[in-house]
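Extended Data, record histidine kinase
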Amino acid sequence: MGVMAYPLRYALADLALALSRVSHDPAAVQSTAARAAADMIGDGAGVQLLRDDGRYDSITYHHIDDERSGSMARVLDHVDQLPDDDFSTALAASRRPIVLAGDGVEPLAGEEHEIHSAVLCPVIVDNTYAGYLVLTREAPGSFYSTAEVELARDIAGELALACSSARALERLRASEERYRRVLETIPEGVLQLDPDAVVTYANEPIGVVLGMPRSQLVGVSLRGFLNDQGQKELNRRINECREGRSTVGGTRLMRADGSQRSVRISMMPLMGDHGEFTGVVCMVTDTTDHIDARGLKRQLDHLRRLDSLGQLIGGISHDFNNLLTVVGGSAEMISSSSDADSQHHRLAEDILEAVGTGRSLTHQLLAFGRSDGNRPEIIPIPDLLTDVQSLFSRTLGEHIGLDLAFGPDVWAVKAERGPLEQALVNLAANARDAMLHGGMLRVAAMNEVVEAGKGPEGVPPGRLVHIVITDTGVGMTDEVRQRALEPFFTTRPTAAGLGLATTAGIVQGIGGHIELESEPRMGTTVHLYLPAAEEKTASVAGRQGAPAVIGRVMIVEDQPEVAQLVQRLIEPAGYAITVATDVLQAVSLVAAGAHPDLLITDVVMPTMTGPELAAALRTHRPDLPVLYMSGYTAASLGPQLHLDDNSMLIEKPFTRSTLLGAIRTLAGTQPSNEGATAK
């Protein structure tokens, strides 16, 4: 074998070259090594390596007689077995070849296969047992010489080197794939630029930011997406990177479609093998939505302040109505007890007139207070427009004229009064802002009947009240008009962009439709189409079960001065009156045997609401009539107040005649003065 050693050295070099060429393919590596071992040493050779799960993979076996390759492979294969047999443990421990001859071969192949000698060489990859190379001969008396065993060991060594290279390549491929996947899946855009800011790599997200497929970005200069200022900034930053420094900053990028995005760019230098500057890698984060979100947060804070202001207005209006009730009631009593031509009478009448103005102001304020009411009422449009006329005038100011045009026969609508008033005032406010140098606002209302499918798009069919609000302001472009009803859309930096959106929501909430008509410098016309209320076919004949004469009245009001005023207003009419300024006191009085014919109670009180008190007293007197009084409007009270056929609401401030009229309507005729005794 010494004569063969020199040529075999070349054979081993050829094997190493062949293995390096197929190092990317593990199956080809094993097949090349098995074939080389069979050809160089004979008769058959196989490679049995461990898988990643620690068990043997299928054997790769080659015999110089191809017909024997398959059957021999089946005999020798340890696929799916753990390396815990005697041969494997010895190879892993000693890392030296095992040479078998004669009877010693039997554990490897069994008696029925005529293998007379064999060599097992361990394959050590990265200092770890990875399997073995097996050589077999079938000729009786055959054996492997020391030189052949050494050659087998060299072949196993070349195989180990090839496996190590294959594993390293696989790790490199996996690492590159992970890196590529990171670049493709991170939400940030990634750009690689050469020293002249030309794109050499772009991931998918940056293509989305710039509005171009990333395949088209390679070879394009980033300068094309920047304005003059942005280009100067880019040059400065690339120079910083050229000096080895990273840089971070914000800029505006112009997309391919002409729109702009706000971005934050982090730039890091790229260096070549010899430390030369080769370009920069950029991480690009789109901050447009973040900046928009900050604007939305400001608008949301504004909304919250408006909501708090609404609650504050509601509370102040309620308390103010209580004060007005006392002032108005006292003035009315002074007026009724003094001569018509006396100064006291005239002063009392002036006070009453002022109370009336205050009442209308607080009710208008309550329309803007918080209302979760969903308590629609029948609203005659002429009444509504007359009531909001003063609000319109205050909203518009002195430099804008107001023209209201409607007939007395305009139909009523069914809606919550407060929100509907708010919707109209919102429109007046928008018109005012469009007429900064003065102008005219015209409001007209008319009846219309729209047949199904024949009206303007979006307008519901049926009987409608058509309200037209026209201003002589700056008007709107088509683009602005189409977005004008969107929440938060505004052309004024100081506005929340909610006026028209709120109006649209209120109108649509009652089944109506809003439409805008506008041209720049030609003013704006808003069309409101509101479903008319159903006409009543019959009037209510009167309340059932009300007593013919009522004598005993219980007044429950947590404000003592209001309770005292109500007592003074109705006492001269002959009623026997019990006053309670505490709800629990009222319940105790009835439980102890008091039998009021009428309960007059505030709605919002500590401990228990008026409706809860009424329900408690009606367990003793099921048919007890209840007259509620409140500084809030019915719509503002919402679900707190449910009026049945045996209850009514009067809103503070009220007059003596309003109060007595409500009592008569609710509870029948009043007693004569002589028949009443106070309790």
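Summary. The radius of gyration is 48 Å.
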